[in-house]
Design brief:
Elements: H1 10-13, H2 27-41, H3 48-55, H4 59-62, H5 69-82, H6 93-110, H7 115-120, H8 135-147, H9 152-176, H10 213-223, H11 227-243
C-alpha cells in the first residue's frame, strides 16, 4: 500500500478550502484589505469575521498578525496618515499650507468612509489635533513654519487654527458623501499602537518626543488651553468674510 504525504487540512490552517495559490497573510495585506472593506462598506461593517471573509481566510487566521479590531483600526489610521506627501521644499509658508490642505483633503475625498477615523479618534497626546494628528506630520508642520520665521507661539497657533479649519470642513464633506462621523462601536486606543510608521506612545506623560525636536520645544505652547480665544478669533474671521458678501 502506497503511503501518501500528510498535509494540513483547511480547517487546521485557518484557511477556507478551494482557493489555492493565494498570497500568504501578513499584517500589511490585512491592513490594506481592512481599508478596502471600510471604503466599500463603512467602519461599522468591519469585523474580524467580515475581513476574514473578504480575504478568503477564517477570522482566527488574522489574529496571528493583528490583535483584534481595535488594533486594526489603529493600523488603518496610521496607513492613511502615512499616505500624506508633505513637500520637502515648501516654498513660501502660504504655498506650504495650500499643499498640506490639498493633501489632507485628497485623503478625505479618496477615503470618505475611513476619514472620520482620522478626524475623530483621540490622538496620541491631547495637545495633538486631528486631522494633523501624527507626530511626524506635526513635526514637519511646525519646523517648516519656524524655518519660515514664525515665532513659537505663532507656529503653534497656526497649527491649531489650520487643523480646526481642516477638521470642520472635511468632516462636513465626508458627511455629505454619506460617511457616518460618529465613533465606531469598538473604541480606538492609540496609546497601544504598534503600526510601525511612528513610535508607540501611551499616556501623554509617556510620549517619547526624542525624535521630534520642534514638537518637544513647542510642547508647552501646544499644551496651553486657548480654545476660547481661538473660537473668538475664528468667529471674527467668519464675520469679516460675511461682511464682504453683504
Amino acid at each position: 500500500m502506497q503511503a501518501h504525504p500528510v498535509t494540513p487540512t483547511a480547517a487546521a490552517s485557518g484557511r477556507r478550502p478551494g482557493r489555492r495559490g493565494r498570497p500568504a497573510l501578513d499584517r500589511d495585506r490585512i491592513i490594506t484589505a481592512a481599508l478596502e472593506l471600510i471604503d466599500e462598506t463603512g467602519v461599522e461593517a468591519l469585523s474580524m469575521r467580515s475581513l476574514g471573509k473578504h480575504l478568503g481566510f477564517e477570522a482566527m487566521a488574522l489574529y496571528r498578525h493583528v490583535e483584534g479590531r481595535e488594533d486594526l483600526l489603529e493600523a488603518v489610521v496610521d496607513r492613511l496618515m502615512s499616505g500624506l506627501e508633505l513637500p520637502p521644499d515648501p516654498g513660501t509658508w502660504q504655498e506650504y499650507l495650500k499643499v498640506v490642505a490639498h493633501q489632507v483633503r485628497g485623503l478625505a475625498q479618496q477615503h470618505p468612509r475611513a476619514f472620520p477615523l482620522v478626524a475623530t479618534r483621540h490622538p496620541a497626546a491631547p495637545w495633538l489635533r486631528p486631522p494633523l494628528r501624527s507626530l511626524d506630520v506635526v513635526e514637519h508642520f511646525l519646523s517648516t513654519l519656524r524655518a519660515q520665521g514664525w515665532s513659537p507661539t505663532g507656529a503653534v497657533e497656526a497649527y491649531q487654527a489650520f487643523s480646526s479649519f481642516l477638521l470642520g470642513y472635511l468632516l462636513l464633506e465626508a458627511a455629505n458623501a454619506g460617511a457616518p462621523t460618529g465613533p465606531p462601536d469598538a473604541p480606538l486606543d492609540e496609546g497601544q499602537s504598534r503600526t510601525g510608521t511612528g513610535p508607540a506612545v501611551g499616556h501623554d506623560s509617556d510620549t517619547d518626543l526624542s525624535g521630534y525636536p520642534t514638537v518637544r520645544e513647542l510642547r508647552p505652547y501646544l499644551e496651553e488651553d486657548r480654545t476660547d480665544a481661538e473660537f473668538a478669533a475664528g468667529l471674527a474671521s467668519v464675520l469679516d468674510r460675511l461682511s464682504n458678501l453683504k
